[in-house]
Amino acid sequence: MALSDIEVRKAVSRERPYKLADGGGLHLLVQPNGNKYWRLKYRHAGKEKLLSFGRYPIITLADARSRRDDAKKLLSAGTDPSFQKKLNKIAVATAAQNTFGAVAAEYLANLEANNAAESTLSKNRWLLEDLASPLATRPIAEIIPAEIFEILKRIEKSGRRETARRLRGVMGSVFRHAIVTLRATTDPTFALRGALLKPNLKHRAAITDEKQLGSLMCSIDEYDGWATIRAALQLLALTMTRPGDIRGMRRSEINFEKAVWRIPAERMKMRRPHDVPLSQQALKILTDIWPLSDNGDLVLPSVRSLKKPLSEGAMISALRRMGYTKEEMTPHGFRSAASTILNERGFNPDVIEAALAHQDENEVRRAYNRATYWPERVKLLQGWADLLDEFRKLSMSNRHAA
Q1: Out of 72, 160, 269, 379, which one is annotated catalytic?
Q2: 82, 135, 185, 386: which has the fewest C-beta neighbours closer than 10 Å?
Q3: What is the CATH number of domain 210-401?
């Protein structure tokens, strides 16, 4: 006869354990200490077995009956409920180990193995290990869009819209890694496309007026601070490279005879080597400062140590000392200045893009450009160096006229 809720609730302990049957093999085991446990007696493969459902009242009579019915369905399909219970426990334990933090660590390790730039690794570590830390211990397969949205919105409200968008992107990469390694089935960041505010784009300040740029170049030439800072700014203008490339320049990368500076792939943003033609003006600057790094590998070492590169902050400070505010000019601004002026003067845009080491989306076209534009780039960089000299002269003549 089936049990009632009242019978189960009022069952009292005795000197020895006893059972109250409910039917279909389900019974309540009452222990001498008063604890009550639901159990199911069944047969599988000719053997009698016992399956525990948990303790009453945590597991109610209705819960126990539902679990008994589920076990009967497994038996009718030829599956042992006890074995299935073990498998479920293993799955839960595995899911607990496959946390977002664990998969994110694998993703970062893959980036490093694929020779990602240190700046890329550092940025991704910060995004995943710091900003996404609330998800670190969560099983990755259980994370829902609302959890991610809450984190992203908190960052967005602090004014860091671009950071929020980047975090969504890199988290999506982690989820896709989990999918291909069979630890998740969906990417919850996909549902958040368009859910974030657009970033307030801030263009890096750059002087694109030829007369004003000439005045800046004169100020740099007259800069009375550390010689490597002056040379770094001059080379930044002449080579059209990034500040990080200039600061990391090594003696082994310079070929004076061929007038080439080869930046290795590991130091390039696009992870491919980039050859920079050195104009006569650039070669002279390098020749003048070469003795300053005789005891080290860096061409432009820090003021404090030959083993550390010059900081971008030192270049920024020098520009500020010359009277240029952050709204007027930045180290990155030299690339924008060169691109703007050269395009306005009718130089080949493809050659300019190649000189700037911008990545062409078309792989075949990218390979063709790299192979074809070397003579044009040599001519372009020398022409740009000569133009900078003209801008200097124009600025000096204006000074004298004033």
Answers
A1: 269
A2: 185
A3: 1.10.443.10
